[in-house]
Design brief:
By secondary structure, the chain is mainly alpha-helical. It is globular, with a radius of gyration of 25 Å. The chain has a domain of about 80 residues. The protein has twelve helices and no strands. Helix content is about 85%, strand content about 0%. Helix 4 crosses helix 5 and helix 8 crosses helix 10.
């Protein structure tokens, strides 16, 4: 178990997050490689099925929609719609399940790392598979809370607008932003709670809101700071990438494009992809660090372990 189970300030949380993100980046890369490989294989399988299936709609007819008569066009579109609906439904289910696995694997990686425990992809996959039902089920109550908050916010904004005009609009939208930040932070705690505390979906949602309510303003400030930091880093790389492509991009496919130019752009693209992976890792590590810090500060998590270590000495 980690020996650093002690209250952390904002600076310490960011320091712990950076160390977790860099220290476990290789494992983050493994998870992302697995995730995109699965998506690619499943997507290819779906496309191959519809292309090779003789019973599906005629793809060749889609290339000639402009020259079709209205009646034939309507008939073709009616034949296409069930296939489109089917593909959309299959795609949604695939993304829902793979996305849940992805989120679970990332959270399990950083919860294990935060606690100083060993992590392997195989063990993590087994852990997340056992919690898949709870992870999926947690989406429903969280979505219900989001919809209820949205409806309530619309009503409040409407009433404030009627009573206070422009001032009411400003107050209403300010409250709306605060409420949705509160919900977003609480939602980010659900996965670590299910993974680490082994609570079912519904209880995990309630537990997440309880943890967030301890110090909501500090959490909002911390998450806004994390968002601004990642946004600044992303913008700097985006500007550099845009500047580079504006200089070299137009000639990269030209016959006189130099090899160093192509290599430079390829290297920059690789670094940009790695940056995006780091941002994903940073967000998950930050969420896990804040989650454990809430448990340590507000619930005395880790005190028993510290006492045992002290007595042992």
């Amino acid at each position: 178990m980690s020996s650093e189970l002690k209250p952390m300030g904002v600076g310490s949380i960011f320091d712990r997050t950076f160390r977790l993100s860099f220290g476990k980046f290789k494992d983050v890369f493994k998870i992302n490689l697995l995730f995109f490989a699965v998506i690619l294989v499943l997507t290819g399988a779906i496309v191959a099925y519809f292309v090779l299936s003789k019973s599906s709609f005629d793809f060749q007819s889609l290339l000639d929609l402009e020259n079709m008569e209205n009646t034939k066009l309507a008939t073709t579109m009616m034949a296409i719609l069930p296939a489109i609906a089917g593909v959309s439904l299959i795609g949604f289910v695939i993304l829902l399940i793979t996305g849940t696995y992805y989120s679970g694997l990332m959270n399990h990686l950083f919860t294990q790392s935060f606690m100083g425990e060993k992590w392997t992809l195989r063990d993590s996959f087994k852990k997340v598979s056992g919690k898949l039902g709870s992870l999926l089920f947690s989406i429903l109550p969280a979505l219900g809370i989001f919809i209820a908050a949205l409806i309530g916010a619309v009503i409040v904004i409407a009433l404030l607008t009627l009573l206070l005009k422009i001032v009411g609009i400003v107050i209403g939208y300010t409250l709306l932003i605060i409420v949705f930040l509160y919900i977003a932070i609480a939602y980010s705690f659900i996965c670590p709670i299910i993974i680490y505390e082994n609570l079912p979906g519904g209880q995990a949602v309630l537990r997440s809101f309880k943890l967030v309510s301890y110090s909501i303003w500090k959490l909002i400030g911390s998450y806004l700071l994390e968002f601004l930091l990642m946004m600044v880093i992303t913008l700097l790389f985006s500007f550099a990438f845009g500047f580079l492509t504006s200089i070299f991009g137009t000639g990269i496919f030209a016959s006189d494009a130099s090899l160093p130019m192509i290599i430079a752009l390829c290297v920059f693209c690789v670094f940009y992809i790695l940056l995006e992976l780091f941002i994903i890792a940073f967000y998950n590590a930050f969420t896990v660090s804040v989650f454990f810090n809430q448990k340590i500060v507000k619930e005395g998590f880790g005190v028993e372990n510290m006492v045992q270590n002290f007595v042992g000495k």
